[in-house]
Specification:
mainly alpha; 15 helices; two-stranded antiparallel sheet
Length: 373
């Protein structure tokens, strides 16, 4: 991995993307691409989405009456209005459109590695297309489902469970509605973006801002320890840090999606819930990152590190191929190549120069310029 190889790979990806785009102008080729894409989307949607989520009108009306009982009249009115718009003509059901199934976060977790790899590989082409698209006329947006119906679909299960719970104290129900439901209808000051997406966006932005400095720190540290002689080792550590940070971004993107979606209620319920989910997520991400790039998780002696390296070298099958790939990618050197000769004394520091006093300094200036000080 070097700047030249990255540039060449990016140009190759852009060229391949543009070629495929041109090939799709051929009807049969375009039909093939559409068939593959549509079949994948249909299967994914079947696994993860209830395309026609409904609720009996009688149950819906009961929820609305409970809201009026506790003086949430404005919210009840909005529910009633949205319910009328979503009421089926013949089946007496409230049709709330699409709603994610509980299994969706786990399906996303399985496909995330492939999606991440695809996004990384196609990044140069997608950036090029965005640049070209900035100068092209924009397409008209399709009509969206009204915000109130969206909010109703997202909140109806939670509020129905609380509203129809006869054992729930009134003050707890009122607090639940105020803290969790009313925000769903606030499209002016509340974000419609999920916490998982916001977390991943923040993580990606932080990684992009810091990765160069971390790579440079690794490079400079090797140069300092080797008195500027081990440029090869510095380059290797520079690349290793890039791969490590890329691996960290991959695993934390994966885990943020899984944890923040699966434990959404706990994450949003309290600072403690957010803290333990973030702690678990980050710990697992850091452990997987180091394991994936062959970096030790805890402190070891040199003999232990050599034994671990020997075990990797003697691995077989996929594990061996994986570590060989990471070695080629980073130009990783073996630990033994960093051997220091026993008994070798460190280089003597250069002799300190004597400090010149003020009178000597002024005399030197006078003689060199032949002027009065």
């Amino acid at each position: 991995m070097s700047f030249d190889t990255v540039v060449k790979a990016s140009l190759g990806i852009i060229g391949a993307g543009l070629l495929i785009k041109e090939c799709r102008k051929i009807p049969k080729v375009d039909e093939l691409f559409k068939d593959v894409s549509e079949n994948y989307n249909k299967y994914y949607k079947k696994l993860t989405v209830n395309t026609d989520y409904t609720m009996p009108k009688e149950k819906f009306d009961e929820v609305v009456s409970v809201l009026r009982k506790y003086n949430f009249n404005e919210l009840a009115n909005r529910y009633e209005k949205a319910g009328k718009e979503a009421l089926g003509k013949n089946d007496n059901l409230i049709h709330l459109g699409e709603k994610d199934k509980k299994v969706k976060p786990f399906v996303n977790f399985v496909i995330a590695p492939f999606k991440f790899a695809y996004n990384i590989v196609t990044l140069p082409y997608r950036l090029t297309q965005k640049l070209i698209g900035a100068f092209m006329p924009k397409k008209a947006k399709q009509a969206e489902i009204p915000q109130d119906i969206k909010s109703l679909a997202m909140s109806i299960d939670k509020i129905a469970q609380k509203a129809l719970d006869k054992k729930l104290p009134p003050e707890k129900f009122e607090a639940f509605v105020s803290d969790n439901i009313l925000k769903g209808f606030n499209s002016d000051s509340m974000s419609n973006v999920s916490n998982a997406e916001l977390s991943n966006l923040a993580k990606t932005a932080a990684a992009a801002a810091t990765i160069w400095f971390l790579m440079t720190d690794n490079y400079n540290m090797v140069m300092l320890k080797s008195n500027g002689e081990d440029k090869e080792g510095a380059d290797t550590k520079f690349k290793e840090r890039f791969v490590q940070e890329g691996s960290r971004l991959f695993y934390q993107t994966l885990l943020i999606d899984l944890f923040n979606s699966t434990f959404r209620n706990q994450y949003n319920a309290s600072l403690f819930g957010m803290s333990w989910i973030s702690l678990t997520n980050t710990t697992m991400g850091e452990w997987l990152t180091r394991k994936s790039v062959g970096v030790a998780v805890k402190p070891h002696t040199r003999d232990e590190l050599l034994a671990m390296e020997k075990e990797k070298n003697n691995a077989t099958g996929f594990t061996k191929k994986y570590y060989d790939f990471m070695t080629r990618l980073t130009g990783k050197r073996s630990i033994e190549s960093y051997n220091v000769n026993k008994g070798q004394k460190p280089a003597e520091p250069a002799a300190a120069q004597p400090v010149m006093n003020t009178s000597d300094y002024m005399a030197m200036i006078k003689s060199s310029r032949n002027i009065n000080p």
